[in-house]
Amino acid sequence: MTARNLVEVAARVAAAGAKASKAVTPRLVAVSKTKPVEQLMECYGAGHRSFGENYVQEILEKSPVMPADVQWHFIGHLQSNKAKSLVQGVPSLFMVETVDSVKLANKLNTAVGEAARLPLNVMVQVNTSGEETKFGVNPEDCLSLARHIVTDCAHLHFSGLMTIGMPDYTSRPENFTCLSKCRDEVCEALALDVSTVELSMGMSGDYESAIQMGSDNVRVGSTIFGARDYSAK
Question: Alpha-carbon distance 179 to 127, whole Å?
């Protein structure tokens, strides 16, 4: 069932990308938080490699028992004091999508340097909805953090911008528009090619509309893995 759900979502992502005339099919990150390794392996067996986790302890437990070619995305709030354990404990960590402070960027930069690994892909998380309960920098502070990563963090690769949707796993069009405007501002100020700076937006309830509005990276969980059980978290 899980693999079948994955294949269906992947097909919808590809179709939405084609409809939006995307040169590259948007990346589908299968968000596997709270789900057992057996379900992840179903997706892996179907050819999927990009998985997203929200909790440091959970990704530290899953990473060693999953194949080495999995590309892990950390998509939860990351406390700066856990940056080192995340980098050291997940050799195949592909991207941290939730960098929201200079302090966290510096901690990750130091950890990657000490691990003597290739530069780590990171995204700046932007709070596009203005909700106080959401992490992420305010849109007006996005450029300064991106500039710090590009100019002062040699062991990090600035890959793009990320935003989290509304509580019901959807976002309003203005959230997507805001993130796109942030990218334009960052690219202009830092002389970056827009095509090299990804937008990570869209979840189970809105990933197709997010792709229509420019998303390069969608994070889909419950549609693939089923409803979550947070009782152990």
Answer: 9
